[in-house]
Specification:
There is one protein chain. By secondary structure, the protein is mainly α. 79% of the residues lie in helices and 0% in strands. The chain has three domains: 1-140, Serine Threonine Protein Phosphatase 5, Tetratricopeptide repeat (Alpha Horseshoe), CATH 1.25.40; 157-233, no CATH class; 236-264. The termini are far apart. Residues 16-223 form the MIF4G domain. This is MIF4G domain-containing protein.
């Protein structure tokens, strides 16, 4: 009995180490391979399903660059089990929403004053991941709307609480805004009416938040197309091609200027 339990514990520890390693090295380039290997290891073991979902949420707070690929991983796992096992699909779905609610509650449960930079960064990374989960249609519309409502403060809230919640609100809406408007334009109009009221209280907001809210409004007016493209994970092949293109461009410049010098002498 003890030997069996020890063997099972060792197996679970190896699986956890594999998942941790896979999440740290996953890229668009190796996504399909890691997904296939992970699904083969999970099988119909609900404990393993819980482990990978919990670890995805935990890792999501370390870097926003992985938010898109992590959300795609969750969507792919759900898609696989939706085809093969409704029971497993529903189990994973419940686990995802449980993690979602736990992470959201940490952000909106109480008014926050000054948040340390390290904690603020982790929260913004979690927000980016949650936003991508909504875009993947994993987080339902009504849950996202309730989250946004809790983040968007009234004009009468204390300045410190206003700062933190508005920062979170802005980060979230910048990512989900387009999808949100496509699903419920009337609700989105209501949100931006509230933003308009807040921007009229510039003295309460302070200059930084005032201009951040104006930027969100401008983003919507520009059909949710940002002025600067955000950073995303890229494949090694793409980086290599970009480097080769840059080298070729510089070589062409050198050839051009050499010809110019010869022509002038």
């Amino acid at each position: 009995m003890d030997a069996t339990q020890n063997s099972k514990q060792d197996h679970n520890e190896k699986y956890s180490r594999y998942v941790c390693c896979a999440l740290n090295i996953i890229t668009p380039q190796n996504f399909d391979t890691l997904l296939e290997n992970t699904l083969a290891l999970i099988g119909d073991d609900k404990n393993k399903m819980d482990v990978i979902i919990d670890m995805i949420f935990k890792n999501s707070s370390s870097s926003s660059l992985y938010s898109e690929v992590y959300s795609k991983l969750c969507a792919s796992i759900l898609e696989k089990y939706q085809r093969d096992s409704i029971d497993s699909f529903e189990h994973i779905q419940r686990r995802i929403l449980l993690n979602y609610e736990e992470n959201v509650s940490k952000i909106v449960l109480e008014d926050r004053g000054k948040v340390p930079d390290e904690e603020r960064y982790a929260i913004f990374c979690t927000l980016a991941f949650v936003a991508q989960m909504f875009k993947q249609k994993i987080v339902p519309l009504d849950k996202m709307q309730r989250f946004i409502d809790k983040l968007l403060p009234s004009e009468t809230q204390p300045q410190q609480s206003l700062d933190f919640k508005l920062d979170c609100f802005i980060k979230l809406v910048e990512i989900v805004g387009k999808s949100l408007e496509e699903l419920d334009k009337q609700y989105t109009d209501t949100i931006f009416d509230r933003i308009d009221k807040l921007t009229k209280a510039e003295s309460l907001l302070g200059t930084r938040l005032y201009f951040l809210l104006l930027r969100v409004t401008e983003l919507r007016e520009n059909n949710w197309t940002p002025r600067l493209e955000s950073l995303k994970p890229v494949t090694i092949d793409k980086i290599r091609r970009e480097v080769e293109d840059e080298i070729e461009r510089r070589n062409q410049e050198i050839i051009f200027w050499r010809k110019q010098r010869k022509a002038s002498t």
